[in-house]
Amino acid sequence: MSLVMYLYPKCGTCRKAKKFFEEHGVAFTEKNIATEPPSREELAELVQKSGLPAQKFFNTSGMKYRELGLSQKLKGMNEEEKLDLLASDGMLIKRPIVTDGEKVTVGFKEETFADTWLK
User: Fold this and answer.
1) Residue span of the signal peptide, if any (predicted)?
2) Is the pLDDT reported for residue 29 higher than 70?
3) What predicted TM-score, i.e. pTM, was given to this entire model?
């Protein structure tokens, strides 16, 4: 499977990640997280393959996250409920998410991208 990047075109972090790949000649397929969000099943797989808890997939700086008061509500939710919530709105998902079907990165840190995607 080739690289897939779930991103939001207006997101500065996503633009940095995209630029990183372009500068390093890494081919990837873009999916707009607002219009083509990962399904609940895809999210469950991404969470499992990332080794991170579902909590780490939330865009904690997003308006939607704050509007819904999720910083408090998430504490009382189990992983399944968190996945359902993430699947309900792509704008709740931290971005970019990059996967090759085996590995998954969430967010953009140049060092992590270099270690994960340039080898």
Assistant:
1) none
2) yes
3) 0.94
